[in-house]
Amino acid sequence: MKTCIVIPFYNHPQAIQQVLEQLEPFVLPCIVVNDGSSADSRAVLEQLAQRYAWVSLIHRPQNGGKGAAVIDGLNHAIGQGFSHAIQIDADGQHNIADIPRFLSVSESHPDQLILGQPVFGSEVPKKRLYGRQITNI
């Protein structure tokens, strides 16, 4: 099993550094897909990719949405010989401490798609809450 992290990124320059700092102890290669972000956001990504040798960047010329960025990241991962990928959001909303649980379950079930279940608190934006409810239907 060869696992990497895929992070779709669109204009979250203030959050991505903290996400990468939290990922560093896992020693997993990371593919960040810049989905047509601003020049300032792109510059932040370039600096971080130089700082962290385990981070590689893909730049999409224009924003295509999270789905397109994830697909590009997964296709790149396949091209690099990865058999598994964990998708993490660039804004820090995912609990990175759950990565060992995902790795353990995927090792036990290598042919399965492993999904997390979001837990929303009262502070969640209604757009995200309702969007999740619609996609669950």
Any overview of this molecule?
- By secondary structure, the chain is of the alpha/beta class.
- The chain has a single domain, classed as Spore Coat Polysaccharide Biosynthesis Protein SpsA, Chain A (Alpha-Beta Complex).
- The protein has helices at 13-23, 39-51, 66-79, 99-108, 126-136; strands at 3-9, 30-35, 55-60, 84-87.
- Strands 3-2-1-4 form a 4-stranded parallel β-sheet, with helices on both faces.
- α1 (13-23) packs parallel to α2.
- It is globular and about 40 Å long.
- It starts with a strand and ends with a helix.
- The model has no long low-confidence stretch (mean pLDDT 87).
Summarize the structure.
43% of the residues lie in helices and 17% in strands. With 137 residues, the protein is an alpha/beta fold. The protein has a four-stranded parallel beta sheet, sandwiched between helices.
